[in-house]
TrEMBL record:
Lineage: Eukaryota, Metazoa, Chordata, Craniata, Vertebrata
Domain called Inosine/uridine-preferring nucleoside hydrolase: residue spans: 5-310
Family: Belongs to the IUNH family.
Record's protein name: Si:dkey-4e7.3
Record GO terms (molecular function): hydrolase activity, hydrolyzing N-glycosyl compounds
UniProt-listed InterPro entries: Inosine/uridine_hydrolase_dom, IUN_hydrolase, Ribo_hydro-like
UniProt xrefs under CDD domains: nuc_hydro_CeIAG
A Pfam family assignment: IU_nuc_hydro
Record-linked SUPFAM superfamilies: Nucleoside hydrolase (SSF53590)
């Protein structure tokens, strides 16, 4: 059994990633910590509970974390995820926030990893604020992780929220900097360009959502708005020639779930630009080794897409 701990800003692709993990009987989710990002941290908490309810897994503990970045204010996530983060689809039966644990997300992160030393894969599909705060409170934390899987950053200086930066890093560059520099554990990055190059055809999406299950109907409902936005964007060719379906956060999750998922990768020291006229939040890939950092991150280049399709299908069964 794989033990996963998830840190999310539950937009639509976080929901898809969570459902991916929930769909695998060999995965145990120890907890889900919430952070600002695609929407407010309160909405993120609500959204995670809605996903767990749709999957009948409300027993998984959910924790509320940071409501803004280390510096400055939250970045608006754009229109893709809707105002509420899950496509603004009405959900009158949604569970109440009283189900959120009293313990703060950052404390929970530290506690859960310390209770399972060497066993936890931490999957972060959001701005990295909670992780940065956690490593400041407990510097021994990274050394106790089995692996850290992040959706975030970019490798070709192409942004999706600013000219040069990917959303999760742009939403808290200082936190991304702390995490990439202080988490000296096996680190796997699903960066923005890679996710775009790993798109699935829209026809797959139709088959995926067309499954006769409550989970598929739930996903179709929360994804309707995002799908329209994505299709508009791809005709405008805004997404690296992306003409298909990209579930960014799901690639980081799949890599944590299956050690053979990544089929090709690069290994380089990485960091984040904190200033710059246009480049704040952009990931730095030190291909020449000039930063003199010993720790290298695994940057995903190719993954097993046939396996990915099977995992995605199983998630909505
Ligand atoms: C990332 O930002 C969010 O919009 C998505 O949920 C994903 O984590 C993509 O840049
Ligand atoms: Ca996310």
């Amino acid at each position: 059994t794989k033990k996963l701990l998830l840190d999310v800003d539950c937009g639509v692709d976080d929901a898809q990633a969570i459902m991916l993990a929930l769909g695998d009987p060999n995965v145990q989710i120890l907890g889900i910590t919430c952070v600002h990002g695609n929407t407010t941290v309160e909405n993120v908490c609500k959204n995670v509970l809605r996903v767990l309810q749709a999957c009948r897994k409300l027993e998984i503990p959910v924790f509320k974390g940071a409501d803004k970045p280390i510096l400055g204010n939250s970045l608006s996530g754009g229109n893709f995820h809707g105002e509420d983060g899950l496509g603004d689809a009405p959900d009158p039966g949604a569970p109440g926030l009283d189900l959120i644990q009293e313990e703060n997300a950052v404390s929970a992160l530290i506690r859960i990893v310390n209770e399972n030393p060497g066993e936890v894969c931490l999957v972060a599909t959001a701005p990295l604020t909670n992780l940065a705060l956690a490593v400041r409170m407990d510097p021994s934390l990274p050394g106790k992780l089995k692996g850290l899987y992040i959706m975030g950053g970019n490798t070709e200086s192409r942004g999706n929220i600013t000219v040069c930066a990917e959303f999760n890093f742009a939403a808290d560059p200082e936190a991304a900097y702390v995490v990439l520099n202080d988490f000296q554990c096996p680190t796997y990055l699903a960066c923005w360009e890679f996710t775009c190059y790993s798109q699935l055809p829209w026809e797959f999406c139709d088959t995926w959502l067309g499954q006769d299950s409550d989970k598929a109907r739930f996903m179709a409902k929360i994804f309707r708005h995002g799908m329209e936005e994505a299709k508009k964007e791809s005709t405008q060719n805004e997404c690296l020639g992306c003409t298909g379906f990209v579930s960014c956060d799901s690639y980081a999750m799949a890599a944590a779930m299956d050690d053979l998922f990544i089929t090709e990768s690069d290994q380089y020291p990485v960091s984040v630009e904190l200033t710059g006229t246009y480049t704040r939040g952009m990931m730095i890939v030190d291909t020449l080794g000039l930063l003199k950092k010993t720790h290298k991150a695994v940057i995903m280049k190719k993954v097993d897409m046939e396996k990915f399709k099977k995992m995605m299908m199983a998630a909505l069964k």
